[in-house]
């Protein structure tokens, strides 16, 4: 009977997972607030989106630090852990650009702010999906 090689699973810790999972509802809330502003033109929706993006950037930034530490500590520096880190980095950078876009006048931030919010939300969902699944480092033991 042959045995298949086993791969160590890399799971985020509880704090890393909480920070990572917290980015999705915050970025999604910002997207929904942008949609509400586009429908009603009530400036408070634009302000709410700005605050949600700021909170999401804090969560995403700390999750990015955890991902960087995990990437440096990983035995195998390729594959899904690198893709996860790069997706999270892209989410944070585009989220920062989105925050700058939302810092403009409420009327001037549309429609670019809504498009950026949609892109950042999708990136956050993909990064969270990859980050919370069982990542295999690719090293046989």
From TrEMBL:
Q: Does the keyword Transmembrane apply?
A: yes
Per the record's keyword annotation, is Coiled coil included, yes or no? no
**Superkingdom as given in the UniProt entry:** Bacteria
Domain named DUF2231: which ranges?
A: 14-132
Pfam families the record matches: DUF2231
- Residue ranges annotated as transmembrane are 15-36, 48-69, 81-100, 112-132
Recite the UniProt keywords alphabetically. Membrane, Transmembrane, Transmembrane helix
**What protein name is recorded for this chain?**
DUF2231 domain-containing protein
* Source organism per UniProt: Pseudomonas haemolytica
């Amino acid at each position: 009977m042959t045995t298949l090689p086993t791969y160590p699973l890399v799971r985020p810790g509880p704090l890393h997972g909480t920070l990572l999972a917290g980015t999705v509802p915050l970025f999604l809330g910002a997207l929904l607030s942008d949609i509400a502003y586009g429908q009603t033109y009530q400036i408070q929706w634009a302000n709410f989106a700005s605050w949600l993006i700021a909170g999401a950037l804090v969560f995403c930034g700390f999750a990015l630090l955890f991902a960087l530490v995990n990437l440096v500590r990983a035995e195998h520096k390729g594959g899904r852990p690198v893709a996860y880190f790069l997706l999270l980095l892209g989410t944070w950078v585009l989220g920062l650009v989105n925050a700058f876009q939302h810092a403009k006048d409420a009327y001037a931030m549309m429609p670019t702010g809504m498009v950026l919010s949609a892109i950042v939300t999708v990136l956050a969902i993909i990064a969270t999906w990859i980050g919370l699944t069982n990542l295999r480092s690719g090293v046989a033991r």
